[in-house]
Amino acid sequence: MASIDGNEEYEGTIKRLTDMAVDELRSVRGNGDAIRAACARYFKRGYSAKISTEELVDFFGVSGTVCEDAGYSETEAVEVMRLVGELTDEEIAATQI
Length: 97
Description:
Layout: H1 4-28, H2 32-48, H3 53-62, H4 66-69, H5 74-86, H6 89-94
């Protein structure tokens, strides 16, 4: 079982990751290539922090509200999640953060 400090660190990391994703998605709304790149950066940062794909997806769009917080409509959020599903490991690995 993780210590309270560990939980707080984990929660802080998730908050920083999702806040950065919200800010980036807000700034590139309507630009599919830039949205895809922002999503790849989110995953790259998450992997660097040793967060699993499943957790990152969950915090991004299942239990999290990154797209909603960025001002995206439900239709736009579905499109972003489609783009997330298309990201390859190679694409994420090649992404500059």
